[in-house]
Amino acid sequence: MGMLRSMVTNLLLVLALSYLGIVTYLYLSQGRMLFLANLPSRVVAATPADIGLAFDPLSIDTADTADGETLDGWYVPAKTPRGTLLFFHGNAGNISHRLDSIAIFHRLGLNVLIFDYRGYGRSTGKPSEQGTYRDAEAAWRHLVGQRGIPSREILLFGRSLGGAVATWLATRVEPAGLIVESSFSSVPDMAAELYPWLPVRWLARISYDSKVRIGEVQVPVLIVHSAEDEIIPFHHGQALFEAATEPKTMLEISGGHNDGFLVSREKYQLEIYRFLDQVFKAP
Asked: Hey, what's the torsion of the CAs at 212, 137, 202, 39, to 10 degrees?
């Protein structure tokens, strides 16, 4: 009996130490798990010129936000622009993996500014939640300050992780509108679903609490999400829509997390065109 009790005690000790090790690892590695800056690579493999679009290469300085990173980006002008779209991409890859989206927005008559967060693509630095917010402010200042574009002629667009960054910025500036595509309600909400057996809400050092912030946004909001999204469940988009204030629109598309906008291209483009009529003057 004493040997059995000792074996059980040792087993429980091993399990407790293993659990503690997993908790410690998750706490320390949150940034590496969320910011997939090196996937698929930091190489900018293509440019808008490869799809027949003229563009201005950009180097955006973040010095005005208390640090000194340099962000790599593109400004893709439309021939007869209805407005300008500030594009915040997801947590993997870089701007060269967003050419399909740039082409869609260009056809819809939008100038597009897209950039890589610090640590992504050719941008300097290391990504962090606060760092992405500073990068968003720097990109906004480039449009409003250096290019002289009125704030009410700028539409914020964020996909996946970028939806959280765009939502944060929309609470601090006055854009024409906000589009949040395939994004989460918050990082702790996502983590709690992925690791229900861990105290992730206590461990979370990264928040991106869009569900709270989107209720503070005072411009038209379009939420886009696929019911077939295999990475960020559809109910996250529904939660963001419910938390947003009017005027707001929900667009349900088909397809996966990374290709829904292509699978549902016709429906997707039509609804965004209608949203542009709402936030900009119709041509």
From this structure: 110
Predicted model pTM: 0.89
Q: Show which residues are catalytic.
A: 160, 229, 257
CATH number for the domain including 46? 3.40.50.1820
Is 172 part of any domain? yes
Walk along the chain (283 residues) and give the pLDDT tens digit of each residue: 666 666 656 555 555 555 555 555 555 555 565 687 566 568 899 999 999 999 999 999 997 656 889 999 999 999 999 999 999 999 989 999 999 999 999 999 999 999 999 999 999 999 999 999 999 999 999 999 999 999 999 999 999 999 999 999 999 999 999 999 999 999 989 887 877 756 666 566 788 999 999 999 999 999 999 999 999 999 999 999 999 999 999 999 999 999 999 999 999 999 999 999 999 965 4
Q: Residue 21 has which token pair? A: 């090790």
Cβ atoms within 10 Å, residue 141: 17
Q: CA separation (Å) from 223 to 33, 100, 141, 182?
A: 25, 19, 25, 8
Residue 29 lies in a domain: no
Count of domains observed in the chain = 1
| Nearest-10 Cα torsion for 73, 267, 176, 185 | -80
Q: Which helix (H) or strand (E) holds 74?
A: strand 70-76
For residues 48 and 27, give the distance between their C-alpha atoms in angstroms, rounded to a whole number. Answer: 39
In a domain, 17, yes or no: no
Strands (E), 134-220: 154-159, 177-181
Whether 13 maps to a domain, the answer reads no
Angle at 217 between CA 137 and CA 148, to 5 degrees: 40
Domain with 124 in it? 35-279
Lookup: tokens for 116: 């890589």
Nearest to 86 by CA among 31, 168, 187: 168
